[in-house]
Specification:
The protein is of the alpha+beta class. The protein is built from 9 helices and 13 strands.
Amino acid sequence: MIVATYSIAACDLESRQWGVAVQSKFLAAASVVSWADPAAGAVATQAYANPRYGPDGLALLREGASAVDVIARLTDADEDRAHRQLGVVDRRGGSASFTGEECAEWAGGRTGHGYAAQGNILVSAETVDALAETFEATRGRPLAERLLACLSAAQSAGGDRRGQQSAGLLVVEPDGGYGGLSDVVVDLRVDDDPAPVRELTRLYGIHQELFGKTPDEEWLPLDAALESEVVERLARLGYDGGFERALFSWAGRANLEERIGPTDRVDPVVLEALRRETG
């Protein structure tokens, strides 16, 4: 399978997050390209893609191999390496990118601490430059937002010269996913769309509303007036049985249960959603 695309594998060591973002004129590219494990690192495999580079690369990373060593070991054992493209970021933030000499032009990669950016069948090198430069320029923002910004900048710089079709965003963190029982923070895919990066950005906005985390200092104190308002709005929707029980029941139906916290405060995102629903 020829996954002509641009991608970036990256990490944020401070937040202990690793991820991959990808866009391609290829159906469901992220299902082939994107691999990440917070106990290992991140891998992007593309061009005449070898899907085994994903799990095999993560296995090597878990054993402590560096990104450079992983690429060497995977490609040295692959007779078709001239057609492969690969980006790896290890658990220490080390990075490496490989482009086989038979990958269709324009093809190449750039690396820096914490990221490996690469692409093939691109309009020009400017696409990969945009990935790298945007990642470096967005330091301090959440990793998922940085990766989305990279995709948008790369598309604006030219992107895949065959056009657009699919995009994906994968971010992992130890116990950072749903209920603290998963390592997957974000796993969003647009498999077939004329503007996949735009659609991926829209989906991420919904994801953040449902599963994002509002800083503690922005939560609203639940004084008597606010508690009365919330109880009254919940009652209008048919939820009663006490403030805490009613709010949790409604939030579960609205898919906002991850935003329910201390009973003396309320997440402003939850309050706004409740107000929208009750008018």
